[in-house]
Fold this sequence. Notes:
Blueprint lengths: L2 E6 L3 H16 L3 E7 L12 E5 L13 H10 L7 H34 L3 E5 L5 H5 L4 E5 L26 H25 L17 E4 L17 E3 L20 E5 L1 H4 L3 H12 L4 E5 L13 E4 L4 H4 L5 E4 L3 H9 L4 E3 L6 H10 L3 E3 L7 H12 L2 H16 L2 H12 L1
Helix pairs in contact: 1-13, 3-5, 7-11
Amino acid sequence: MSTIAFFPEGAYGPTNNCVGIGDVLRGRGHRIVFIVEESFAGTLERQGFEERLMRLGPPPEVEEEPGQFWKDFIRETAPVFRKPTIEQLSDFIAPTFEALVDGARYVDDRLREIIDELQPDVIVEDNVVSFPALSASGRPWVRITSCNPAELKDADVPPAFSGYPAADRAGWAEYRDEYRRAHSDLHGSFSEFCVARGAPPLPGVEFIHESPWLNLYLYPPAIDYPRARPLAPTWHNLGASVRATDGAWEADHGDGSLLYLSLGSLGSGDVELMRRLVDSLAGSRHCVIVSKGPQHDQITLADNMTGAEFLPQTSILPQVDLVITHGGNNTVTEALYFGKPMVVLPLFWDQYDNAQRIDECGLGARLDTYAHEPDELLGAVDRLLADDALAGRLATLSAELQAAPGTVRAADLIEQLA
């Protein structure tokens, strides 16, 4: 039996991804320990995992909800989501990286304590910035990228976070120049910190190292980006990584189609947007399951809807006909795993890249999140539901992904490394 420590970013997407893989490894007899923020205390224990707690900043004066830091951060910066993605680089992306880097600096000593105590055979992390304690430990560690693979930069892949089309390179150079300008100072200081704490310097304008042992990402091969240069042999594409730990959910609806609306645990915090979407769908002939999120008490559902603060997404997706999503990587890959078309309303980070990729690959529709009209949303829903050829393509893609579960593939690779 090996001891395997999982260290996901303090948000539900990366955490759920690691839970799915950890569950497979636990079933094989390994000891699985999650290193999580204090606000998540008990969340993983309730699923039968060990926890070790840490903080990414000074303790608050009042008790936090899980992931509260990022909920507050998103709420305060939400007005930036209405700007073009190139303007978001300095107004949202750079401040987000700065907050993440501040957390990595703050927690480094605590991570070393946890690693020294656990003596793990392998450390598995799913983050977007480096934590020097992992490299400095001398222990094998695995990097998981559970975001859109445009973050694995390449000359033939559109710039990360841009949402630009793959077939049109207009604006790519300008976007990349602005990315370097917005991040170069922070990158330089963080690279110096990494070296001072025993880790290698950061490459390029990247905020995270590749693992010399094993690197994983998840994106269905059918929609993955062609690359000018192949990724290193340490990289493996899981396709999708769908957990089997969600509770059961029985959908009860009439004769119409069943839709699932989720903007993720962070995006759903935009109450105004959620109310607008609810109003748009209220008069439709469809039934809708709504993931209401942390501000659930401020969102009133219509008669054709049901929902709750949090829902067992992977139990719901097989039962619905279409997904309306923010474009988070977990939701996108899970929807494809179950063969569902999508209407994507991106808000931030890689959601723009996922929205564009789904649209340009013909597996759904990308809409302007804040400027679309209700008729556009309903029209996209009806058009996708009526597309029999699309349904056939999605069924084939789903069968391919389910025949090779990413959670099992990841567990195999991590187990071999251990």
